[in-house]
Design goal:
The complex is a heterodimer of chains A (335) and B (328). By secondary structure, chain A is an alpha/beta fold. Chain A is built from twelve helices and twelve strands. In chain A, a hairpin with a 2-residue loop joins strand 9 and strand 10. Chain B is α/β, with parallel strands linked by helices. Chain B is globular. The chains are: A alpha/beta (335), B alpha/beta (328).
Chain lengths: 335, 328
């Protein structure tokens, strides 16, 4: 194993995840062709310790399926998932269990993800019980208090006996983060961590994630919000229809986008300054459904600069010629 | 140049919700707004600041537990004066609304076209073949082929359902459209499509619009003016450019600072604390506990909105101090 591989926390290579579409009884009996939702179609990326990688894209682009495959909530069809140097894509759930505490996930909606009957203490202590961590009640309580402090729920005594309905949205998300931190994970997956929160509290949650990253945690953030990704992630991977179409240092991807899809996506993000609005390059239609994936480049039917060859060539992600950074890649024959 | 009269104004509008046991929630506390013909105004603020309640009051669509006071003036007539009697002739005819989540509120077992025909027949603007013809026209106007009128809502994508919801609101040719978070659940590309549609509709139909959103950049892109709401009142209003470049209320400035900009490098801030619960009347400036520039009078005295520039008003003691300083 090379030094570089040892440095990587998560290394995903050629990940493919698809879901069967129910055919119904008649379909099964008549052996109608099985259709698949091609959620993730060959995705490769890595996350290093102390790095935040943002998977960015619209609904249905496969970003959440990618995250769920990585933590084995769903089983990938093929591809490799190496976590801390160990292949976990085909590990049995029993063998996976000790690794689970090292990769934690927090969800979009802190109103849905917390049990309303659990006090803050119970929510954060539960993962310790499940994983059999802590020597007795007092030890667990200490760990709960420490996790709460790390998640910015300070002083912890003020919050520990509260129920979710007694907390604001931002505080709830901090409880969810504390429940992940209590296991001391190496990798945190944050699935749209602030999209349900008011804009006034988003920065607090994102800064908390940034602090955790600086302390050495690897973070995979799933988001549809390019502005958030640009501000807080080290690297951005833009997904379209199950593929990463562009990947690179966050600043480079945003300031110097290479793929026509990224360019369009960036052009439609409204700016705060009304005097600086530029004409958005609005793509017609919506992302096609991932059951019938277009031939060649998946983006060609909506691409403003597509050529004839794009209908047949399925471009690979490779260094873009006009990119400033060498590790800035795009999947387009024109780059 | 003659200055046109506002098409819709609210003057000192108040809404109280009865919480039972003699308690009340004063959700809207003296809401003032002037909307001119063809104008697109953003109404922004955090959740719970009264945006939706205020525009539901403009439509007379609040639940029975709410009591309303003040004036809602539509083309010179106070339509709030006689309650439902003065409100109902104008609802949908002159003022229409796209509700929050309207795209998910279609009846799943009725064809989309039939659902657009419904308000026309209900309000007597058209019926039968004429109404169906108009439903087709409306669908085309929002960018959906008229042949899709026979489809069911589940056959539409989210963006198309939102377009259909807009078509439905326009069924009786209103002059004012109130749009409550019309792009919130949509992807950024679909959001751009819907914003472009709303802007072009206001231009083509001479429609005035109030766009309610928590998203300042959306307002900056789609609106010419904006009103910032906090704790049930408008704390600052002005052109969108003025509010961004020369905010005169700390809440406006801090809201912008909390919003990440794709191209900006500056740190994004969070605003500590939460908006006040309005089941008790706030003392002093309701924003003071969260404000980064509060000083002596803020804790005790509520600031009144004062004119600080061209059609630019703000309710903050800092401005009073500045004006007092300039005149002495």
């Amino acid at each position: 194993m090379s030094a570089q591989e040892q440095d990587t926390l998560l290394d995903v290579e050629g990940l493919v995840t698809r879901y069967p579409i129910g055919r119904g009884m008649v379909g099964t009996v008549t052996r109608r062709e099985q259709l698949w939702v091609h959620a993730v179609s060959g995705v490769s990326f890595s996350v290093a310790p102390g790095e935040m990688v943002a998977l960015v894209g619209e609904s249905g682009c496969g970003k959440t399926s990618t995250a769920q495959s990585v933590i084995r909530m769903v089983d990938a069809d093929s591809g490799s998932i190496r976590f801390r140097g160990r292949e976990i894509a085909r590990l049995s759930h029993r063998d996976l269990r000790p690794l689970r505490r090292e990769m934690q996930i927090i969800y979009q909606d802190p109103y849905e993800s917390l049990d309303p009957r659990f006090r803050v203490r119970d929510t954060i202590e539960e993962p310790l019980k499940i994983h059999g961590i802590g020597a007795g009640k007092q030890d667990r309580e200490d760990k709960v208090l420490e996790a709460m402090t790390r998640a910015g729920l300070t002083p912890p005594e003020l919050f520990i006996d509260r129920y979710p309905h007694e907390l604001s949205g931002g505080q709830r998300q901090r409880v969810a983060i504390a429940a992940a931190l209590v296991l001391d994970p190496k990798l945190l997956i944050a699935d749209e961590p602030v999209s349900m929160l008011d804009v006034s509290v988003r920065a607090g949650i994102l800064s908390l994630l940034d602090d955790l990253r600086q302390a050495g945690m690897g973070i995979l953030m799933i988001t549809h919000d390019l502005s958030t990704a640009a501000h807080f992630a080290n690297r951005i991977a833009v997904m379209y229809l199950g593929r990463i179409v562009e990947e690179g240092p966050a600043r480079d991807v945003v300031r110097n986008p290479q793929h026509p899809y990224t360019k369009a996506l960036i052009s439609v993000v409204p700016k705060r300054d009304p005097n600086e609005q530029t004409p958005p390059q609005i793509l017609t239609g919506e992302t096609p459904n991932p059951v019938h994936v277009p031939s060649g480049c998946r983006f060609h039917p909506r691409c403003p600069v597509a050529e004839e060859r794009c209908k047949s060539i399925d471009p690979e992600l490779r260094p873009a010629k006009a990119a400033a950074a060498r590790d800035h890649r795009a999947a387009c024959v024109l780059t | 140049m003659t200055i046109a009269e506002p098409i819709l104004s609210a003057r000192d509008l108040h809404v109280w919700f009865d919480l039972g046991e003699g308690r009340e929630l004063h959700a809207v506390r003296g809401f003032d707004i002037d909307l001119y013909p063809g104008e697109r105004m953003g109404l922004v603020g955090e959740s719970g600041c009264g945006k939706t309640t205020a525009i539901l009051a403009l439509m007379g669509l609040l639940p029975a537990s709410a009591s309303v006071a003040g004036q809602v003036v539509l083309e010179g007539e106070d339509i709030l004066a006689r309650g439902e009697d003065s409100m109902s002739p104008h609802r949908w005819h002159e003022i229409a609304m796209v509700f929050q989540g309207a795209m998910n509120a279609f009846n799943p077992v009725k064809r989309v076209g039939a659902q657009i025909v419904e308000p026309m027949e209900l309000h007597g603007t058209a019926s039968g073949r004429e109404a169906r013809q108009r439903a087709g026209d409306l669908l085309e106007m929002v960018g959906i082929g008229r042949d899709r009128a026979n489809r069911y809502p589940h056959e539409f994508s989210g963006g198309m359902r939102q377009r259909a919801a807009i078509a439905m609101a326009l069924a009786c040719s209103p002059k004012v459209l109130l749009a409550d978070e019309p792009t919130t659940a949509l992807d950024v590309m679909v959001q751009a499509q819907i914003l472009e549609l709303l802007v072009s509709l206001t231009k083509d139909l001479g429609l005035a619009m109030i766009l309610v959103t928590h998203d300042l950049p959306v307002v900056a892109q789609a609106c010419t003016r904006a009103s910032v709401m906090y704790a049930g009142e408008v704390v600052e209003r002005g052109s969108t450019a003025t509010l961004y470049h020369e905010p005169r209320h700390p809440y406006t400035r801090m809201l912008f600072a909390a919003t990440p900009d794709l191209w900006g490098d500056e740190d994004v801030i969070s605003i500590a604390g939460t908006p006040p619960r309005l089941d008790h009347e706030p003392v002093g400036c309701p924003f003071a506990p969260r404000c980064d520039s509060a000083f002596e009078p803020c804790a005790t005295r509520a600031p009144k909105p004062i004119r600080v520039g061209d059609r630019h008003d703000a309710a903050c003691h800092l401005n009073e101090r500045e004006i007092a300083g300039a005149t002495t």
